[in-house]
Design a protein that fits this description.
about 260 residues, alpha+beta, single chain, about 15% strand
Amino acid sequence: MRHQGYGKGPLGGRDIGRFVADGFIRLEAAFPRELAEAGRAILWRATGCDPEDPRSWTRPVIRLGHHAEAPFRAAANTPVLHAAFDQLVGPGRWRAPAGLGSFPIRFPSEEEPGDAGWHVDASFGTETPDFMAWRVNLRSRGRALLLLFLFSDVGEADAPTRIRVGSHRDIARQLAPAGEAGLSLRELAADGFAGSAQRAEALATGRAGDVYLCHPFLVHAAQQHRGRAPRFLAQPPLLPTEAWAAGPEGGESPVERAIREALGG
């Protein structure tokens, strides 16, 4: 059956078909709202801001790193998420998350956040401090999925992540001639990601507890917060196992199928 993932799980054939074609799928109620609330309490403390006093929200975005406290470990490892990872990546091909991060906490602000450009997330070569030199290759070395964990309700005015629908296919074609070395973010961004500019745009809205499961090549961007309540979101990678060798040559996972179809296979 076309677009079939690995085994049984929360994603039906239509869901997996949308992932292959669009590059993402939203998994509703992937973790309990109670965990989102507990996680927000930890993150509020880490920001140094007062949730009851908007006068303390003086910056458009505060970036927090990895958090491994119990609510984050539990949120990242629910049975439904593990089953979805199996369906999209394959059993034994991903590592159970030890926590979550990073967290770009976005606050209502008239000020531009300064980080709202279109991009893909790099996955290897990250030992250099120049993040524009970080790299991506066709086998998606170092990243099995991009994940967006909603820790607050996110409406259209609440700085939802912008997504170029189907843009993972454009990136796959851009990466194909580069081989194992891949391309740096600087090289990928040289034309401002013009190759996907014609794509329709979607917004990663939803309720606290929803998770967006995204192809690692998906082009996305932040935006200014025009709502009223701060937006809490984690954007970790799903790390592959040491045996990971994603690619277009015969792989049966939906991640690989999307790459193969983008290259005309």
